[in-house]
Specification:
mainly alpha; 0% strand
């Protein structure tokens, strides 16, 4: 790909990610689902090139932080990192059942960092005092979420590969 084409993709994907991430803040809680969709452009960018995906992830996080710091933190620690990690890992691991595992582990580590290092209570009051037990408790629901996300993203790959000649889904 040429530099101009990469730059155009970068700008389009950053604007799309930032807009979707800002929808709950701009339009209200009724559009909270749009924040989840904000990670699809990060996935697409990281499928094209991992450096492009990382750049879209960081830029969208920065733009989101200018509007709403809470949404930016949510994007950095959950949706954005899921889109980035699944996009990078998808081309490297053959079985789709193993692809979500690294993403789940990264999200759990990010949530622990926010909870224990920054002191922002994510887990609230929990009977499970041990971080290891909390991690095991989070693993299955996050795995299911990442797996469903991956299946939807793979359909997106197929559609983009069909209609955009530059995009090649592996």
């Amino acid at each position: 790909m040429t530099i101009k084409r990469v730059l155009v993709y970068y700008v389009i994907l950053v604007v799309l990610t930032s807009t979707l991430q800002a929808m709950p803040h701009i339009s209200g809680a009724a559009f909270a689902f749009a924040a989840i969709l904000g990670s699809f452009p990060v996935y697409i960018a990281s499928r094209l090139n991992w450096v492009l995906g990382f750049a879209v992830y960081l830029t969208a996080a920065y733009i989101s932080s200018l509007m709403n710091l809470g949404e930016a933190l949510l994007f950095i620690c959950t949706n954005g990192i899921i889109g980035l990690s699944l996009g990078i890992i998808k081309g490297r691991i053959k079985s789709i059942y193993y692809v979500p595992v690294p993403s789940v582990m990264i999200v759990i580590l990010m949530l622990f960092a926010v909870n224990y290092l920054l002191g922002i209570s994510i887990f609230g009051y929990s009977q499970l005092k041990s971080p290891i037990l909390q991690g095991f408790t989070l693993f299955l629901p996050l795995y299911i979420y990442c797996f469903i996300y991956l299946k939807l993203a793979m359909h997106t790959d197929t559609l983009l590969g069909k209609y955009i000649e530059v995009y090649k889904a592996n």
